[in-house]
Automatic annotation (TrEMBL):
This is histidine kinase. The keyword ATP-binding applies. It comes from Streptomyces subrutilus. Signal peptide: none annotated. It is an enzyme of class 2 (transferase). The keyword Metal-binding does not apply. GO terms for molecular function: ATP binding; phosphorelay sensor kinase activity; protein dimerization activity. Pfam families: HATPase_c, HisKA_3. The chain crosses the membrane at residues 52-74, 80-99, 106-124, 130-150, 157-177, 183-203.
Length: 442
């Protein structure tokens, strides 16, 4: 029944409005999904092109920055061709490592950028040019900061940012005359990039923790629902068992009066049976107090006799009066043939099934059938689709209906079959054995 609720919610057409394109929405989700240790960026992405995207982006930057760096160092700064080539490779190629191990890439690139700044102090045309960080260094460093922000912890990001600022400050004492100091520029831009990407990763971490907590809460809710249903069933069966124990007590106590001339050992045996029955009733009452859990007295509704198959007719009539069309087929003598546990379970299964029909498919025609043979009682509740697509009247249910049905069927060692019908609607079929074995089958 609950599964059908979600299905009907999906059939309701949503209002038109602007939507983010599918690819962009997936990319935004991937950006917020943090990668695990030793995994590349976007390793959790569902599609192959998304997993390859970081490598492609970094590869484009390396292929672009490498020749530009060598050309600018040689032509604009006047650095020797050998040094320009070596610095170009050292400052750009390690960016490829940033996809999988950004901290290691940062250490290598920061060292290479520092060496490059020292070499440029004595370059022929460093005057009127950016120093200690060239424009190509700033672009590559910002890409590195983005990889770090999407991957590392806040503590690591703060350490990287402060180390960058410290190196720039120390190099500032050796600034060549006429050059433009870019240490503060990289420090500010790097901090902004780390803050943005770090916040994006923090959002992904928070969403992941929320999803984990929701999963844990759902499992706990299902467990609590199961325990509540078992306690409720135990409270209801208390009345059934207590009735039989009371009959045993009365018969054992009245036996000496109904059967005069009974030998004394037999009288003592009946007295012992009556005492054991009364003691068992007392233990059951104490157990029932524990199952209630709140120490309160039983409500008036709980004092009423437990319902059975004989009251299904009244249940169906009440449902029809509520505006739900229901047909009933009830086998004659079913109530007398069923033992108390099966009698009560059959009624509750029909009650839960009809309640779910009213709740999740109002207006749908339903059919209730209760048949009995020599071995079992068959309870069948089938409803068709609702006259028109509807939103469930209760969309935040806990699933007590199906859980309760399963527990009642389990109690009687029967079987339960539930599920949607091909043409719409839902089916609940329970087989409840009339002769329940005393022990679990091996």
């Amino acid at each position: 029944m609950r599964g059908r609720t979600r299905e009907r919610v999906r059939t309701v057409p949503s209002s038109p409005g602007p939507r983010v394109p599918g690819a962009l929405a997936q990319l935004a989700l991937v950006l917020r999904t943090p990668a695990r240790a030793a995994q590349p960026l976007f390793a959790q992405a569902p599609q192959a092109w998304q997993r390859m995207l970081p490598f492609a982006v970094v590869g484009v930057f390396v292929v672009t920055l490498l020749p530009v760096t060598i050309t600018v160092l040689a032509n604009d700064y006047g650095l020797g061709g050998g040094w320009a080539g070596a610095l170009g490779v050292a400052q750009t190629v390690p960016l490829l490592l940033a996809v999988t191990r950004p901290v290691h890439a940062w250490a290598v690139i920061l060292l290479a950028d520092t060496i490059g700044a020292v070499l440029l102090i004595h370059a022929e045309r460093v005057s009127a040019h950016a120093w200690p960080w060239t424009p190509m260094v700033i672009v590559g460093y910002l890409l590195l900061m983005a990889c770090l922000g999407l991957r590392e912890s806040i503590r690591t990001l703060v350490g990287v940012w402060l180390a960058t600022g410290a190196v720039g400050t120390v190099l500032g004492f050796f600034q060549p005359a006429g050059s433009m100091n870019t240490a503060a520029l990289l420090f500010v831009l790097g901090g902004v990039m780390l803050a943005l990407t770090g916040a994006l990763r923090g959002l992904g971490d928070a969403q992941q923790r929320i999803a984990e907590q929701e999963s844990i809460s759902e499992a706990e809710r299902a467990r609590r629902t199961l325990l509540e249903e078992r306690a409720r069933i135990a409270r209801e069966l208390h009345d059934v068992v207590a009735h039989h124990m009371s009959v045993i007590t009365v018969q054992a106590d009245s036996a000496p009066y109904r059967l005069p001339g009974m030998p004394e050992p037999v009288r003592e045996e009946f007295a012992a049976i009556a005492a054991a029955a009364r003691e068992s009733l007392g233990e059951m009452r104490r157990l029932l107090t524990v199952l209630r859990g709140d120490g309160t007295e039983r409500a008036e509704g709980e004092r009423a006799p437990q319902p059975g198959i004989g009251r299904i007719q009244q249940l169906v009539e009440a449902t029809v009066r509520a505006g739900q069309p229901v047909e009933l087929s009830l086998a004659a003598g079913a109530s007398e043939a069923a033992p108390p546990a099966v009698d009560l379970s059959a009624y509750r299964i029909v009650q839960e099934a009809l309640a779910n029909v009213v709740r999740h498919a109002p207006g749908a025609a339903a059919r209730v059938s209760v048949t009995v043979d020599a071995d079992e009682v068959l309870v069948l509740v089938v409803n068709g689709p609702a006259p028109e697509p509807v939103v469930a009247l209760e969309s935040s249910g806990t699933g007590h209906g199906l859980v309760g049905m399963r527990e009642r069927v389990r109690l009687t060692r029967g079987t339960l079959d539930t599920g949607p019908l091909p043409g719409g609607g839902f089916r609940v079929a329970a087989r409840l054995p009339l002769n329940t074995p005393d022990e679990e089958p091996s």
